[in-house]
Write a structure and sequence with these properties.
Radius of gyration: 22 Å
Number of strands: 4
Strand order of the largest sheet: 2-1-3-4
CATH topology: Rossmann fold
Distance between the termini: 63 Å
Oligomer: single chain
Shape: globular
Number of domains: 1
Number of helices: 5
Strand content: 15-25%
Order of helices and strands: EHEHEHEHH
């Protein structure tokens, strides 16, 4: 391939991050938050460059994420929550709306959003994904946010592939005095 590819780096130095975390299922979401925060700081983010907003539940995450993104203070937003399947269709409705809302916020604001919302059938699955058997999805979301923030900057700094043609400005001809 002759074309150069552009990628995001995992260096959070100089970047600002907003984290939206759901208070619902706090036993899980606090683990996600601690790990996401740790991932940012280990990657070079300054603690005072990390803002944390606590939403009541997962359904409110997209609205809070959009509000953070619209401030233009953050290079990326990290969305953290935990949804556990119950006996009704409520879970499916909430999962779909949260996913759609986070994606829509990212697309409409132009600020990268990392998806760290667990969607699990059981509490055991959630515990595993919040730091025990399956790593920590909060940490993974933080790394995705760092990479996407850097990727956005890299794309913005690339010269355009389409070069504008230079046009000669036509000046009106001056009449010569005879």
């Amino acid at each position: 391939m002759r074309n150069k590819s552009v990628g995001g780096k995992l260096n959070a130095s100089g970047l600002r991050f907003g984290i939206v975390v759901s208070r619902f299922n706090e036993f899980i979401t606090e683990r996600l938050l601690r790990s996401a925060y740790d991932g940012l700081v280990r990657s070079g983010a300054k603690e005072h460059h990390i803002g944390i907003v606590r939403a009541p539940g997962a359904f409110e995450i997209p609205s809070a994420a959009r509000s953070l993104a619209q401030t233009k203070k953050y290079d990326a937003i990290i969305c953290l929550g935990c949804l556990l399947r119950g006996d009704t269709a409520h879970y499916d409705v909430i999962v779909n709306e949260v996913t759609r809302g986070i994606g829509q916020s990212a697309q409409e604001t132009g600020v990268p959003h990392a998806f760290g919302v667990l969607t699990c059938d059981t509490l055991e699955q959630a515990i595993d994904r919040a730091g025990l058997k399956m790593g920590n999805k909060g940490f993974e979301a933080a790394l995705a946010a760092i990479e996407m923030a850097n990727l956005k900057k890299a794309i913005s700094s690339q010269p355009s592939a389409v070069k504008k043609k230079k046009t000669k400005s036509k000046k009106p001809l001056r009449k010569r005095n005879a």
